[in-house]
From TrEMBL, chain B:
It is found in: Apical cell membrane; Cytoplasmic vesicle, Secretory vesicle membrane; Golgi apparatus; Membrane. The keyword Membrane applies. This is Cell cycle control protein. It is a multi-pass membrane protein. The keyword rRNA processing does not apply. Belongs to the CDC50/LEM3 family. It comes from Esox lucius (Northern pike).
Length: 1570, 389
C-alpha cells in the first residue's frame, strides 16, 4: 500500500514535472521529452506528456477511402497534359463550339485518369497491406497492471513504453537501450535494412543503467529523457536523461536502437521507446522514388510543342476558312447553314471564333493523349525485362539489377559520359593484404602474391578447372610448427573449394558462407605470410616472452623486433573489428578476463592509474578471468555508477587472482580451458574454431587477417579490452582506454591502450600515409635519429612503390605516453566527451591533440582487386563512344595505376597531369594544356582525308549539341588527363571551368584523384550543364551519393559498402561489368524502342487528324468529321494502341550479342539517331502524305455518289487503321508471335467494335446514327478494293525509302542487323576479323562492307602517330627557389621539404619542368634531341618513349635498399635515366594483376603528389607573372640552359624517326616555331 | 514506394530465417527464369529492308494491281450513266457512254426551260412551278435503271446541319415526338408546337418532283413507271425509322407542326401508301442520310426492268423530264441534276478505282525495277555477305 502511495505521489509529481517540461518543450521547440508511460497509466490520457508524439502505427499509404478521389485527381492534374485534355473535354460542354457528345468526349480523359488512378490505388493498397502486416507484428511491451511484458501489436506501441526484445527480433520503434542481458551491457544489432551493412554494430545501455545488475524493472523507472526532435540522421542522436535523483547523463547514438534493425547476439534487452511510427529515423529516411525526365522525353516535349503549334495552325486555317465560307454567302443564308439555336444569324467572324474552339476539340487527337500513358506502360515493361535479364543477375549475391527510377530507361541508351567511382565500383572492395614494410624493411610477400595470382588464374581458366591448384601453393619452409604446416594444407584446400567463380554450386556455397560474415572470402582471409617476417615475429615474440619472464625491461630489445611486434599489435587492435565464431556467426566470442570499461571519468583514471594500482594490475591485467555476474548485486540502481563500479572492479580484481595470474597467462600453452572458453561452449582448440572477423570496412578486416597469418590473432574484442594471441607470448589483453574512430577529415584512427607487457599507455594510430607522415616526430640528428630518418625515408619509398603498384597504403604508427601527458589529455578529452554542445568538434580536436609526435612502425599495402570484367567493360564502353571519367578519393598514384590496370588509361596514350596548388597555377596549367592539345593535334586536322583513313578510335568525337557554347566539334584525342583534388577545386572555379572542360573534353579519359564527394558532384554537374551531355554516375559508397544524384542517370553498385548509393541511385546493379549489358544492350533497346514509338505516335496522330483536316475543305470548314466520333475518340485508345505497345516493348533492332560485340552501335543512341529533330518533320510529312492518300482515294472512289457521311467515313477510318498498322509493320524489326497477335487483334477489335456499335442501337448515337453502316460496307466489294489499294499506295514511298536506305546507305545499326542474320560462326569470324584490325575498332564492317561509309558520328578530325606514342606529359611547375633547397637536403623547408628531398625518385618528372616556359612540357630525351631548335621539342609528337620510361621505373625502383646518392646536382639530370636500366623494371611483371600493362606503363607520373604540385609561393608573384608572360609568348622558346642533355639522344632519335606518321606536319610546325 | 525500407524488411525475413535454419537450399533464389520471353529471345522473324529483299514485293504488287485495275476500269465503263442535263433547250441530247457533261436543270441560263422556276427563292411557295426538259437517248438501258437527283454545292455535311436531327423522334419515340431533342434547334418548335420531323435536315427536304415520259415516235407521251420503294436502306426503313405508334398517322401527329419549309405535313408525304408515309417515307429517309460531300446524288426512283420482257428498260428515243420545281438552290449557287444510271457489282459508274489500281500497280512495278537496279549496283556486297551462307 505504502508503495502504491508513493508511486501515486510520484505520479503527481511526475505529471507536474511533466507539465513543467511541456511548457519547456513549447518554449524550446527543439527537444522532445519522453517519460515512462507507466507513470500515467491511471491518469487520464491527456495527462500523459507523451500523448503528442506519433504512435507506432505506420501509414505509408497516400490516400484514404475518402480522400482518394480528390487527392488523386489533384495529383494527376499536376501533369499539364491532363489539364489540357480535361480542358478540351470541358470545352465540349459549351454548346456553341462542341464537336462531340460532351459525355463521350470525356471518355478518353476519364479513361486515362482512371487507369492512373487504378494504378495508384493498387500501389496504395499494396502499401496498405504491407503497413498492416507491419503494424500487426508482435512485440513485448511492459504492462503495468500485469507487471510483466505482454505481446502487443507494433501499432500499439507508444512513445514511453518499455519494450523487451529478444534475439533476432526486429525493432518496432526507435528505442533507447536501458538494459541488456549481455554482461557487457551491449546489444548487437544488424542494420542491413537501414544501410545495407551486414556487420554487427554494438549498442550500449545508457550509462546510468550500465551497472544495474539485477533485471531492469520498468515500474521503478522514473527518469525523464530529453532528446532531439525526430530527424532523419541515422548517425546522430543526442540528448540526456534526467534521473529522479537529479543526475543527468548524456545519451548518444550508441544508446539508440533504430527501428527496422535486428537484434543479434543478445538474448534479451529492454528499452524505452523514444520515437515511434513515422517519427522513427528509419521512416524519416524513406523517400519515394525519384522522378526524372529523360532526354528523350524532353525532346519529345519539344515536339509535342510543335504538335500544338501545328494544331493551332490547322485550327486557325479552318477558322479563317470557315469565316470566308460564311462570308461568300453574304446575307443569303443557305438552307444547310443552320442558324444558332436562338435562331439568330451569326456573323462570319463570330462563327470563325467559335469554330476555332471546335476545331481544337476535333483535332485534339493530334496531341496524343495516350502517348504519355503508353510511354509509361512501355517503360514499366522495359524495366520488367531489365529486371529479368539473367546476365544482370549476380549469383553470388543473389541479386539482380534493380531499376529504382522507372522512367529513364531510355536514357541508358544515350549516355555520353560515365563518371565512376573507383573503390568498390571498378574494384571489388575486397581488400587483400599484399605487402608491408616494417621499420624500413620491406617484406614483399611473394608467396602471397603467387597465391593471389593463382586466384586470378583460377578466375581466368575457370573452365579448364585443373584440380591440382592446391599443389602449386607455396609452402612456408621456415615455419617449423606442425600446426601451421597443417594450416597451410588446410588453407590450400579451402582455397580450392572456395574459388570465387568456380562452379555454380561452389559460388553459391561461398556466397552463403560470406553472408554470415562480411568481407571474408577465402581470398581475403588466407594470407601466406612472408617467411622472413614470420621468423622475426616469432623471434620477437620469444624474446619478449623471455624478457617478460625474467622481468627485464623490454626496451633493451632490438628496436626492429619491438617495432615488428608493435606493428602487429597495431594491426590487430587498431580497428573496430568484432570477433565471432563460425558456428554461430552472430555470436561473438567472449574472452572476458576482467571488467573494465573505457576510461570515462577522471576518478576512474585516477583509480586506475595510481602507482599502487599500476603495480598490481600489471600482474592482473593480462589474464585475470572473472565471472562478474556471480557476485553482482542488485544494489546499484541509479547510484553513481562509474565510481562504484570501479571500486567493485578493484575488489574483484584483487581478490580472486593472485600474482600467479601472470605465470598462467604466459605459459607456452596459451589456451587453458578457462581462458579459451568460447561463448558457444565449445572449448575446442583454436585451430578448429576458426574465428571470424566482422569489420566495418574491408581493409580493417584485411589487416586483421594479415596479422593472424603471423599468428598475432585477435581473439576477442570488448568495449574495454582487446585480447590478442601472440606467438610465444600467448594471449595478451590490452586494456582499451579509448578508441578514436576513423573519420575522413583526420584520415586516421587511433586506439589508446595500456600495453600489458610494458604497462605503458600506448597510442596506436593507423591512417593514410600523407597524414601520418606529417605527424611523425622529426628524428633527432644523432646516430639514432639517422636510423630513424633512414627508416622514414625508406618507408616513404616503399609507400610510393605500393601506391604505384595500385595498392592502398596505410601507415602504422605508435606513440607512448607518459601518465602525465595522458592525464592532461584525458581531462580535456572527458570534457569533450561530456559536452552536449559541439561534442563532435571537441572530440575531433581532442583526437588531433592526441595524434602527434608519432613513431613510425611501418606501412601496409592492401590490394583492392579489380572486379571481374572491368577492363573489358571499360574497353567496350569506350568503343561505344562513352567518355569515362574516374573520380576517386584515392591518391593519385593508386588511382593512376588502377586506371592502367582497368585499361582506362592506355599505355599508348599520353597523359596530362595537372597538379597545382593555386588558382593562378591552375590557370596557367590549363592554358598550357589547351595550347598543347591544340598545337599537337592541329597538325593532323590539316590533312583530313588522310586522317580519315587512320583509325577512327583515336579520334572520335561527339557532336556537340547545338546549344553548346562552342559549335565546332571537339575532338577526343588519345590523351589522358589526371588531376588531383586540390587542382580540381581550382579548376572548378567559375573562372577556370571553361578551360578545364576544354582540356578535359579533348581527353579520352579523365582521372580525378583525391576528390571529395562534393567535388565529384560538382564535376558531374559541370560536365552535364556546360557540355549538355548525358552523364551517368556510378558508385557504391556514401561518398558517391551526391554524384549519383546529380547525374542524369545514377547507378549504384550494391556492393559491400552499404546501401546509401543504391538508395540514391536510379539503377542498382551487383557488379560494374553489368554496366556493359545495361547500357549497350538494354539502353540501346530501350532508347530505340521508345524513340521509334514516340515518332510513330506523332505520325499516327498526325496522320489521323490530317484526314479530318482535308475533309474541312469539303464541308465548308464547319468542323464536321466524317469519322464517327466514337472511332475518333477510341482510335488511339483502343484500336491502334496494342501493337505499338508490343513493338515498343519487344522490338529488337539488333540482337543482344551483336550489340555487345559491336559497342559502336551504341553511338546510335548517343547521337540520338533514332529520333532526330528532323525525323519528327519527316514523319509529319509522311503522315500528311499518307493521310492525303487515305482521304482522296475514298474521296475519288465515292465522289458524286449517293454515299452518306458516315458510310463514307467508316472506310476511311478502316483504311487509316490498316495503313497505320502496316506502317508499324514496316518499322517493326522483329516479328514475334506477339506482334502478329497484337496487329491482328487490333484489326479484329476494330471490326468487332464497329459491328457491335453499328448494330446496337438504331437511334442512340446521334448525330452519326451509324446503324448497320459497317455491315452494309462489308457487303460491298468497293470497300475491300479500297482496303487493298489505299495502304499500298500510302506506304509505298516509305517502304521504298527503307529499302533504298537499307541498300544504299545503311546505318551502323542496319549493318549490325545484317550481321545478325548471318550464321553464328560466320558472324564470329567477321567480328573477330574486325577486331583484329587493331586500332580501327570502329571499322566493324567486314571487308565487303568496308566501302560503305559509316554514317557520321566521326568527324574529319585526325590523329596519327599519337597511337604509338607513349609519352608522358606532366604539367607541373615548381619555382626553382623552392625546389633547390629541398633537393640539397637543407632544413629550411621543414619536415615536408625534407621528406620531399628524401623521395628522390619524384624529382625526375618535375625536374624538367622546373623552369619550363613552354606551354607544355615534353619530358624526356626528345626535348633534348633538337638541341636549341624548336624542332626538337616539336618533333616528339609521334614518338614512343616507352623504353626510356621503363628505364625510369627501373632506376627508381631498384634503389630501395641502397638509396641513391643525395641529389645535389641539377634535377634535370635525374630525368635522364639510363635506358640500360630497362631490365630492372622487369620485376614488375611479376605482379600478376598489373603484369602486362606495366611493361609499358609510364611510372614517371608517380611522383609524390606534394613534390609535383606547382607551389607558387605567396612571395613569388613576380615569378608566376613572368611565367605567364612566357606562356603568352606566341612562339614559346626554351632557354637553352634549361634543356636537359640526354645521354641516349641518338638512339631515341632513331626511334623517333621510325615512328612518326606525320612528319610533314611536324616539319611545317617546326618552321612556324622557328 | 515510400515503404522501401519496409520492403527491405520483408526481404530481410528470408535471410534471417535462413541463418537460423542454416539451410542453403531453402533460400529462395531471386534468379530470373530463363525463358525465351523473359530473356527476350522469342523466336522472331527479322525482315531486313533492302533493295534485294523488298523488290519482289513491289513486283508482286505491281503484277496483281494492274490486272485488277484493268478489270475495274472495264467494269466501270460498262455502266451506262448520264446526267440528263437540260441547260440548253435547243440541243438534242445524245450521250455516248463515256460522256459526263455537267449540265443540270437548275435553270441558271435564260434559255433553260426551268429558268423561270429557278427565280423563285421561296421555300414553301404554294404555287408549284413546273417545267419540262426534253432529251433523247442514243442507246437503250437494258437493265434496271436508277434515277438519281443530284445536288451540287449543297453542304449537307455541315457540322451543325448534320447534328440537327432527332433520331429517337424518327424512330417513333412518342416523347421525342412531343419534345424533340435540343439538337434540332432552331427547327425544334414552330408556333409552340413541336416540329415533326424536327431539325434542319428534315426542314430542307428535297421536294422537287421528277417524272419521266417516253415520247413515242408518234408523239404520244408514255409515263415511265418509277418505283419509289426500295430506294432506302432496308435497315433504315424497317429499324431506324419508324412512325409513332398509332393507326392513324394524322391523329398520331396531332399536336405537332410541320417543318417550316414544308408544304405539307409529314403524314401526307405519300398519302397513297401508308407504308411509305410519315417518317418511313423513303424519299424522306434517303434525304435524312446526309451526304458526305457537297456534291452528291441521291437515289430518287428505280425504273425496273420489266420481267419476262426482252425489251430494254429504257429504249432509245425521245424523253421528257417533267420537273415540279420547288427546291430553290440558286441562293447558294447550287445545282440540281437528274441522273439515270445502271449499276454493277461495284456500285455506280466510277472509273477512278480502276485507274488508281493501274497507276499504283505501275508505280510499284517501276519502283521494283529501280530497286532491281539498285540491288544490282549496290547490293552486290550484301549478296556477297549472303553467299557465305
Amino acid at each position: 500500500m505504502a508503495r502504491e502511495k508513493t508511486t501515486e505521489t510520484e505520479v503527481v509529481k511526475g505529471s507536474k514535472e511533466a507539465k513543467r517540461q511541456r511548457k519547456k518543450t513549447k518554449k524550446e521547440y527543439k527537444t522532445r521529452t519522453v517519460h515512462s508511460n507507466l507513470l500515467y497509466y491511471r491518469t487520464k490520457a491527456e495527462d500523459n506528456p507523451n500523448r503528442h508524439y506519433a504512435d507506432n502505427k505506420i501509414k505509408t499509404t497516400k490516400y484514404t477511402l475518402l480522400s482518394f478521389l480528390p487527392k488523386n485527381l489533384f495529383e494527376q492534374f499536376h501533369r499539364f497534359a491532363n489539364v489540357y485534355f480535361v480542358f478540351i473535354a470541358l470545352l465540349n460542354f459549351v454548346p456553341v463550339c462542341n464537336a462531340f457528345q460532351p459525355e463521350l468526349a470525356l471518355a478518353p480523359v476519364v479513361f486515362i485518369l482512371s487507369v492512373t488512378a487504378i494504378k495508384d490505388l493498387w500501389e496504395d493498397y499494396r502499401r496498405h497491406r504491407s503497413d498492416k502486416e507491419i503494424n500487426h507484428m508482435d512485440c513485448l511491451v511492459y504492462s503495468r497492471p500485469e507487471r510483466q511484458y505482454l505481446e502487443r501489436f507494433w501499432k500499439e506501441v507508444r512513445v514511453g513504453d518499455f519494450i523487451r526484445l529478444r534475439c533476432n527480433e526486429i525493432l518496432p520503434a526507435d528505442v533507447l537501450l536501458l538494459s541488456s542481458s549481455d554482461p557487457d551491457r551491449l546489444v548487437h544489432i544488424e542494420t542491413a535494412t537501414l544501410d545495407g551493412e551486414t556487420n554487427l554494430k554494438q549498442r550500449q545501455v545508457v550509462r546510468s543503467f550500465l551497472d544495474l545488475d539485477c533485471e531492469f524493472d520498468p515500474s521503478k523507472y522514473r527518469s525523464v529523457i530529453e532528446c532531439e526532435k525526430p530527424n532523419n540522421d541515422l548517425a546522430r542522436f543526442r540528448g540526456y536523461i534526467t534521473h529522479s535523483s537529479g543526475r543527468r547523463d548524456g545519451l548518444y547514438k550508441d544508446n539508440l536502437l533504430l527501428r527496422g534493425c535486428t537484434i543479434r547476439n543478445t538474448e534479451e534487452c529492454v528499452g524505452i521507446v523514444i520515437y515511434a511510427g513515422h517519427e522513427t529515423k528509419a521512416m524519416l529516411n524513406n523517400n519515394g522514388p525519384r522522378y526524372k525526365r529523360s532526354k528523350l522525353e524532353r525532346q519529345m516535349n519539344v515536339d509535342v510543342g510543335w504538335c500544338v503549334i501545328i494544331l493551332l495552325v490547322m485550327c486557325l486555317f479552318s477558322a479563317i476558312g470557315h469565316g470566308l465560307w460564311m462570308y461568300q454567302y453574304g446575307e443569303k443564308r443557305p438552307v444547310f447553314d443552320v442558324l444558332s439555336p436562338e435562331g439568330t444569324h451569326m456573323s462570319p467572324v463570330l462563327s470563325a471564333i467559335y469554330l476555332f474552339l471546335t476545331m481544337i476539340i476535333v483535332f485534339q487527337v493530334l496531341i496524343p493523349i495516350s502517348l504519355f500513358v503508353s510511354i509509361e506502360i512501355v517503360k514499366i515493361c522495359q524495366v520488367y525485362f531489365i529486371h529479368q535479364d539473367l546476365e544482370l543477375y549476380d549469383e553470388e549475391t543473389d541479386s539482380h539489377l534493380q531499376c529504382r527510377a522507372l522512367n529513364i530507361t531510355e536514357d541508358l541508351g544515350q549516355m555520353q559520359y560515365i563518371f565512376s567511382d573507383k573503390t568498390g565500383t571498378l574494384t571489388e572492395n575486397k581488400m587483400v593484404f599484399r605487402r608491408c614494410t616494417v621499420a624500413g624493411v620491406e617484406y614483399s610477400h611473394d608467396a602471397n602474391a603467387r597465391r593471389l595470382a593463382m586466384y586470378q588464374d583460377v578466375v581466368d581458366s575457370e573452365e579448364e578447372d585443373c584440380p591440382s591448384h592446391g599443389g602449386t601453393l607455396p609452402r612456408r619452409d621456415s615455419v617449423t610448427s606442425h600446426q601451421s604446416a597443417a594450416k597451410v594444407v588446410l588453407r590450400s584446400q579451402s582455397t580450392k573449394s572456395h574459388r570465387r567463380t568456380g562452379s555454380r554450386a561452389e559460388a553459391k556455397r561461398a556466397s552463403i558462407l560470406s553472408k554470415h560474415t562480411a568481407f571474408s572470402s577465402p581470398m581475403e582471409k588466407d594470407i601466406t605470410p612472408d617467411p622472413q617476417l614470420l621468423d622475426k615475429v616469432n623471434d620477437g615474440g620469444s624474446q619478449m616472452d623471455f624478457k617478460r619472464f625474467h622481468s627485464q625491461s623490454l626496451s633493451q630489445m632490438p628496436s626492429e623486433l619491438t617495432d615488428i611486434i608493435d606493428f602487429f599489435i597495431a594491426l590487430t587492435i587498431c580497428n573496430t573489428v568484432v570477433v565471432s565464431s563460425p558456428n554461430q556467426p552472430r555470436h561473438k566470442v567472449r574472452m572476458r578476463f576482467e571488467l573494465k570499461s573505457p576510461v570515462k571519468t577522471i576518478e576512474d583514471f585516477i583509480k586506475r592509474f595510481t602507482p599502487s594500482r599500476l603495480t598490481s594490475s600489471s600482474n592482473n591485467s593480462s589474464s585475470s578471468s572473472l565471472n562478474r555476474s556471480s557476485n553482482r548485486g542488485c544494489s546499484h540502481l541509479l547510484t553513481s555508477p562509474s565510481a562504484e563500479s570501479t571500486l567493485t572492479k578493484l575488489d574483484e580484481e584483487r581478490h580472486p587472482r593472485g600474482p600467479g595470474g601472470l605465470e598462467q597467462a604466459s605459459s607456452p600453452v596459451p589456451a587453458p580451458p578457462t581462458l579459451g572458453t568460447c561463448y558457444d561452449g565449445k572449448p575446442g582448440s583454436q585451430e578448429e574454431v576458426e574465428l571470424r572477423y566482422e569489420a566495418e570496412s574491408p581493409d580493417e578486416a584485411a589487416l586483421v587477417y594479415a596479422a593472424r597469418a603471423y599468428k598475432c590473432s585477435l581473439v576477442g574484442r570488448l568495449p574495454d579490452q582487446v585480447t590478442v594471441e601472440f606467438p610465444h607470448l600467448g594471449r595478451l589483453s590490452f586494456e582499451l582506454l579509448h578508441t578514436l574512430g576513423f573519420d575522413s577529415n583526420r584520415k586516421r584512427m587511433s586506439v589508446v591502450v595500456r600495453h600489458p607487457l610494458t604497462d605503458q599507455i600506448t597510442v596506436y594510430t593507423k591512417g593514410a600515409d600523407s597524414v601520418i607522415m606529417d605527424l611523425i616526430t622529426p628524428p633527432p640528428t644523432d646516430s639514432k635519429g639517422k636510423r630513424h630518418r633512414r627508416i622514414l625515408y625508406k618507408t616513404q619509398n616503399y609507400l610510393n612503390r605500393y601506391a604505384a603498384d595500385g595498392l592502398r597504403t596505410l601507415c602504422i604508427a605508435k606513440k607512448v605516453m607518459s601518465k602525465e601527458e595522458y592525464a592532461v589529455w584525458l581531462r580535456r578529452h572527458l570534457e569533450a566527451e561530456t559536452a552536449i554542445q559541439g561534442r563532435e568538434d571537441l572530440l575531433f580536436e581532442s583526437a588531433l591533440r592526441l595524434e602527434t609526435n608519432l613513431h613510425l612502425l611501418g606501412a601496409t599495402g592492401i590490394e583492392d582487386r579489380l572486379q571481374d570484367g572491368v577492363p573489358e567493360t571499360i574497353a567496350s564502353l569506350r568503343k561505344a563512344g562513352l567518355q569515362i571519367w574516374v573520380l576517386t578519393g584515392d591518391k593519385q598514384e593508386t588511382a593512376i595505376n588502377i586506371a592502367y590496370a582497368c585499361k582506362l588509361l592506355d599505355p599508348e596514350e599520353e597523359i596530362i597531369t595537372l597538379n597545382a596548388d593555386s588558382q593562378d597555377a591552375t590557370a596557367v596549367l590549363l592554358e598550357e594544356s589547351l595550347h598543347y592539345i591544340q598545337v599537337k593535334f592541329l597538325c593532323s586536322s590539316s590533312d583530313p582525308s588522310r586522317a580519315f583513313q587512320n583509325d577512327y578510335a583515336s579520334v572520335y568525337s561527339f557532336s556537340p549539341p547545338a546549344s553548346s557554347s562552342s559549335s565546332q566539334p571537339f575532338l577526343v584525342h588519345r590523351l589522358g588527363l589526371v588531376i588531383d583534388g586540390r587542382t580540381l577545386a581550382y579548376a572548378l572555379d567559375s573562372s577556370l571551368e571553361e578551360k578545364f572542360l576544354a582540356v578535359a573534353r579533348s581527353c579520352r579519359s579523365v582521372l580525378c584523384c583525391r576528390s571529395t564527394p562534393l567535388q565529384k558532384s560538382m564535376v558531374v554537374k559541370l560536365v552535364r550543364n556546360k557540355l549538355k551531355v548525358m552523364t551517368l554516375a556510378i558508385g557504391d559508397g556514401a561518398n558517391d551519393v551526391s554524384m549519383i544524384q546529380v547525374a542524369d542517370v545514377g547507378v549504384g553498385i550494391s556492393g559491400q559498402e552499404g546501401m546509401q548509393a543504391v538508395m540514391a541511385s536510379d539503377f542498382a546493379m551487383p557488379r560494374f561489368r553489368n554496366l556493359q549489358k545495361l547500357l549497350l544492350v538494354h539502353g540501346h533497346w530501350c532508347y530505340s524502342r521508345l524513340a521509334n514509338m514516340i515518332l510513330y505516335f506523332f505520325y499516327k496522330n498526325a496522320m489521323f487528324v490530317a484526314l479530318i483536316f482535308w475533309y474541312q475543305f469539303h464541308c465548308g470548314f464547319s468542323g464536321s468529321a466524317m469519322i464517327d466520333q466514337w472511332y475518333l475518340i477510341f482510335f488511339n485508345l483502343m484500336f491502334s494502341a496494342f501493337p505499338q505497345l508490343i513493338t515498343g516493348t519487344l522490338d529488337k533492332d539488333v540482337s543482344s550479342e551483336t550489340l555487345q560485340e559491336l559497342p559502336q552501335l551504341y553511338m546510335n543512341g548517343q547521337n540520338s539517331e533514332e529520333y532526330k529533330p528532323y525525323m519528327f518533320w519527316v514523319n509529319m510529312i509522311d503522315a500528311f502524305y499518307q493521310s492525303l492518300v487515305c482521304f482522296f482515294i475514298p474521296y475519288f472512289a465515292y465522289v458524286d455518289s449517293d454515299v452518306d457521311l458516315f458510310t463514307w467515313g467508316t472506310p476511311i477510318t478502316t483504311l487509316a487503321l490498316l495503313t497505320i498498322l502496316t506502317h508499324l509493320g514496316i518499322e517493326t524489326k522483329t516479328w514475334t508471335w506477339l506482334n502478329w497477335l497484337s496487329i491482328s487483334f487490333s484489326v479484329c477489335l476494330f471490326f468487332t467494335v464497329a459491328l457491335c456499335y453499328n448494330a446496337s442501337c438504331p437511334s442512340c448515337f446521334s448525330p452519326s446514327s451509324p446503324y448497320w453502316t459497317m455491315q452494309t460496307l462489308l457487303g460491298e466489294p468497293l470497300f475491300y478494293l479500297l482496303c487493298v489499294l489505299t495502304p499500298v499506295a500510302a506506304l509505298m514511298p516509305r517502304y521504298f525509302y527503307r529499302a533504298c536506305q537499307g541498300s544504299l546507305f545503311p546505318s551502323p545499326v542496319q549493318v549490325g542487323r545484317q550481321l545478325d542474320q548471318l550464321p553464328s560462326d560466320i558472324r564470329r569470324n567477321i567480328l573477330s576479323l574486325s577486331r583484329v584490325q587493331a586500332g580501327s575498332p570502329l571499322d566493324l564492317r567486314p571487308p565487303f562492307l568496308s566501302s560503305l561509309s559509316f554514317a557520321g558520328p566521326f568527324p574529319k578530325g585526325c590523329s596519327h602517330g599519337v597511337a604509338t606514342s607513349q609519352n608522358q606529359y606532366s604539367f607541373t611547375k615548381r619555382p626553382p627557389d623552392r625546389l633547390d633547397p629541398s633537393l640539397s637536403g637543407g632544413v629550411a623547408g621543414g619536415l615536408t621539404e625534407k621528406k620531399r628531398c628524401l623521395d628522390e625518385e619524384d624529382q625526375y618528372t618535375l625536374a624538367s619542368t622546373e623552369t619550363d616556359t613552354l606551354p607544355y612540357t615534353k619530358e624526356g630525351p626528345r626535348a633534348g634531341t633538337g638541341g636549341g631548335s624548336g624542332a626538337g621539342t616539336r618533333g616528339v609528337t609521334g614518338a614512343g618513349s616507352g623504353v626510356r620510361l621503363g628505364a625510369g621505373d627501373g632506376e627508381t625502383w631498384t634503389g630501395p635498399d641502397d638509396p641513391p646518392a643525395p641529389l645535389t646536382q641539377d634535377c634535370q639530370d635525374v630525368t635522364l635515366l639510363d635506358s640500360s636500366d630497362l631490365s630492372l623494371s622487369s620485376w614488375i611483371t611479376s605482379t600478376p594483376l598489373l603484369g602486362t600493362p606495366w611493361l609499358t606503363t609510364p611510372l614517371l607520373t608517380m611522383p609524390q603528389s606534394e613534390s609535383i604540385q606547382l607551389t607558387l609561393p605567396p612571395a613569388g608573384r613576380d615569378q608566376s607573372a613572368a611565367y605567364r608572360r612566357n606562356c603568352d609568348d606566341p612562339t614559346p622558346h626554351r632557354p637553352p640552359e634549361h634543356r636537359p642533355i640526354l645521354p641516349t639522344e641518338g638512339a631515341d632519335h632513331a626511334h623517333n624517326q621510325a615512328t612518326p606518321t606525320c612528319p610533314k606536319e611536324h616539319s611545317s610546325l617546326q618552321t612556324t616555331l622557328l | 514506394m515510400m515503404a522501401s525500407s519496409y520492403n527491405a524488411k520483408e526481404e530481410d525475413g528470408n535471410p534471417s530465417s535462413a541463418t537460423v535454419h542454416g539451410g542453403a537450399g531453402t533460400v529462395k533464389n531471386k534468379k530470373p527464369d530463363n525463358t525465351a520471353f523473359k530473356q527476350q529471345r522469342l523466336p522472331a522473324w527479322q525482315p531486313i529492308l533492302t533493295a534485294g529483299t523488298v523488290l519482289p514485293a513491289f513486283f508482286v504488287i505491281g503484277l496483281i494491281f494492274i490486272p485488277i485495275g484493268i478489270g475495274l476500269f472495264v467494269t466501270s465503263n460498262n455502266i451506262k450513266e448520264f446526267e440528263a442535263c437540260l441547260y440548253s433547250v435547243y440541243s438534242k441530247y445524245s450521250f455516248s457512254s463515256l460522256s459526263t457533261l455537267q449540265i443540270d436543270y437548275t435553270g441558271v441560263d435564260l434559255s433553260s426551260p426551268c429558268f423561270n422556276c429557278s427565280q423563285n427563292y421561296i421555300w414553301n411557295s404554294t404555287t408549284p412551278c413546273t417545267c419540262s426538259v426534253p432529251f433523247s437517248l442514243d442507246q437503250p438501258f437494258e437493265s434496271n435503271v436508277f434515277m438519281y437527283y443530284g445536288l451540287s454545292n449543297f453542304y449537307q455535311n455541315h457540322r451543325r446541319y448534320v447534328k440537327s436531327r432527332d433520331d429517337s423522334q424518327l424512330n417513333g419515340d412518342l416523347s421525342s415526338l412531343k419534345n424533340p431533342s435540343k439538337e434540332c434547334e432552331p427547327y425544334r418548335t414552330s408556333e409552340n408546337k413541336p416540329i415533326a420531323p424536327c431539325g434542319a435536315i428534315a426542314n430542307s427536304l428535297f421536294n422537287d418532283t421528277l417524272d419521266l415520259y417516253y415520247i413515242d415516235p408518234n408523239g404520244s407521251r408514255t409515263a415511265i413507271p418509277l418505283v419509289k420503294k426500295g430506294i432506302a436502306w432496308w435497315t433504315d426503313k424497317h429499324v431506324k425509322f419508324r412512325n409513332p405508334a398509332g393507326n392513324n398517322l394524322t391523329v398520331v401527329f396531332q399536336g405537332t407542326s410541320k417543318p417550316v419549309n414544308w408544304r405539307k405535313p409529314v403524314y401526307e408525304l405519300d398519302p397513297s401508301d401508308s407504308d411509305n408515309n410519315g417518317f418511313i417515307n423513303e424519299d424522306f429517309i434517303v434525304w435524312m442520310r446526309t451526304a458526305a460531300l457537297p456534291t452528291f446524288r441521291k437515289l430518287y426512283r428505280i425504273i425496273q426492268k420489266k420481267p419476262n420482257n426482252m425489251s430494254p428498260t429504257l429504249p432509245r428515243g425521245q424523253y421528257i423530264l417533267d420537273v415540279t420545281y420547288n427546291y430553290p438552290v440558286r441562293s447558294f449557287e447550287g445545282r440540281k441534276r437528274m441522273i439515270l444510271s445502271t449499276i454493277s457489282w461495284m456500285g455506280g459508274k466510277n472509273p477512278f478505282l480502276g485507274i488508281a489500281y493501274i497507276t499504283v500497280g505501275s508505280v510499284c512495278f517501276f519502283l521494283g525495277i529501280v530497286l532491281l537496279i539498285i540491288h544490282h549496283k549496290y547490293g552486290n556486297r550484301n549478296n556477297n555477305a549472303d553467299i557465305p551462307n
